[in-house]
Predict the 3D structure of the following.
Amino acid sequence: MFVILLGAPGSGKGTQASLLAQQAGLAHIASGDLFREAVQRGTPLGRQAREYMERGELVPDRITVPLVMERLEAPDAVRGAILDGFPRTVEQARALDEALNDKGRRIERVLYLKVPREELLSRLSGRWICRACQATYHEVTYPPRRAGVCDRCGGELYQRADDRRETVERRLEVYFEQTLPLIDYYRGRSVLREINGNQPIPSVAEELLAAIRQDGG
Ligand code: AP5
């Protein structure tokens, strides 16, 4: 099963995709994580992506699409995947459709996490991430047991450079301009489900799992 988690920066895509992937036994493919790994390794692709990420802009499709397509070929994605942060433009959505079509597969669910703007801003300013396993925490709503240390693997927690207020404002603008049109792209196919992302993490997770298990689509 191939499932897309769609939503603004801070809507909870990463948090929920990681829970869903474990529960549904699917790969978790996060385009932002793929870029951050490349930046950390200092590869040519990482150096190119970094420029865009630091400004809160999207990395161009000509870089993003091949990177995600290659990840989709990995053995753990054969049964399916939860896609977190991809697609983000109509061109990316078309490329994904074509690639899945070639394998006789298709997107079965697009789960749209809706969260008010003020809540997005407060979530991103309090977010902490594990350097080792990418687990996500929030200093108020979802704190780790020990400050600065990951509950899951003991790794060091850090705050993302693009979570600064000005960059977050730009990421939100880009989301409304370039990613929100995907709602219309998928609406016609009866795969789209709108989920209230402004509830406690376990309640959102429950709704998402129910939407995945629902028949039809
Ligand atoms: P990416 O890493 O994908 O960032 P994003 O989409 O901006 O999303 P975030 O990771 O900021 O938020 P999230 O929705 O995952 O929320 P989270 O679960 O962490 O992309 C980064 C950059 O890479 C982009 O700007 C772009 O440059 C580039 N890029 C990536 N993909 C690309 C693509 N396809 N095309 C082109 N460029 C691309 O939660 C946020 C916080 O809220 C956490 O602290 C969490 O603990 C807390 N929280 C979560 N859920 C709840 C809840 N229900 N209640 C209270 N708190 C909650």
Remarks:
- The CA atoms of residues 20 and 209 lie 7 Å apart.
- The pocket of BIS(adenosine)-5'-pentaphosphate is lined by residues 7, 9-15, 31-32, 35, 52-53, 56-59, 64, 85-86, 88, 92, 123-124, 126-127, 136-138, 141-142, 162, 171, 200-201, 204 (CB under 6 Å).
